[in-house]
Amino acid sequence: MYEPTRRALVAEEEDEERTTVGKPVPGTAIAQLRIGMSYADALKVMGKPNAETVTNTGKAWIPTYNGTDRWRHYLAYKGQGVLVFAGAAGGEIAEISRTKSYTPDVLIQVVHNPKDSGRF
User: What is the pTM of this model?
Assistant: First the structure.
């Protein structure tokens, strides 16, 4: 499973670490992405990923927390890198991974890696 080397935060004003890791290769689709893009907009630019996975953050286990960043959705693209999205509130991780109704809401981190295998 992919674990980012840096913690990515939802709100830019809370950002204590980089939301973009590595240097984009000019002319690639991943170089066109911007932090804060929706999942749908990022997929329009990137196309179908080679691999994807969903995991929960520690916030998912706080019963009274209904904000964003309860889930992380990772998309891997061979030869380009990994996109990390903050998931919407609600749902259980097993439910989210089984349904098509779950849509991650915002791009929070882009990991540029021209040597990425496209697998987790």
Answer: 0.73
